[in-house]
Design goal:
It is a single chain. The chain is an alpha+beta fold and 135 residues long. It has one domain. It is built from four helices and four strands. A four-stranded antiparallel beta sheet has the order 1-2-3-4. A hairpin with a 2-residue loop joins strand 2 and strand 3 (70-77). Helix 2 (18-30) runs parallel beside helix 4. It is globular and about 45 Å long. The relative contact order is 0.22.
Length: 135
């Protein structure tokens, strides 16, 4: 499965996307918990997706095909000496324009919640960020 181009929700819905801020806020709440992910390949399989490393700094990209030819990508970059950790959503696939922004927002947040469930499941003896216990 290969997707040549990534889109942001603003690319799909237009520059004024009400769902873009919804996703941004939800991912911001979840980003710190993903520092506890550990085995990213296992986490990708847990959510029914696949992983690609995007840098030697521990960054990764997990893709999940939510509908035929429609993929959600979650991109994680760990904190470094200059910048805090970040989590962003990207979209791809030949039929990405057939899915409404509201639906993409819901599915993106759901996928991020699945990642947190993995973190919680595989770190039972660690005090995790509170968001891990709310999803």
């Amino acid at each position: 499965m290969e997707y040549k181009k990534f889109y942001s929700l603003a690319d799909i819905e237009g520059k004024i996307s009400p769902h873009q801020s919804q996703i941004k806020g939800a991912l911001k709440q979840r980003v710190d918990a993903l520092s506890y992910a550990g085995d990213v390949d296992a986490m990708a399989k847990y959510v029914g997706g696949w992983v690609e490393e995007v840098g030697g700094d521990g960054s990764w990209l997990i893709g999940k095909e939510i509908y035929p030819c429609v993929v959600i990508w979650l991109k994680f970059k760990p904190a470094d000496n200059e910048f805090p950790a970040s989590l962003n959503a990207l979209y791809g696939g030949d039929k990405i324009n057939s899915v409404r922004g509201e639906e993409l927002a819901t599915l993106t947040i759901s996928m991020a919640n699945q990642l947190l469930r993995f973190v919680r499941l595989y770190n039972p003896d660690i005090a995790l960020p509170a968001i891990c216990y709310k999803v």
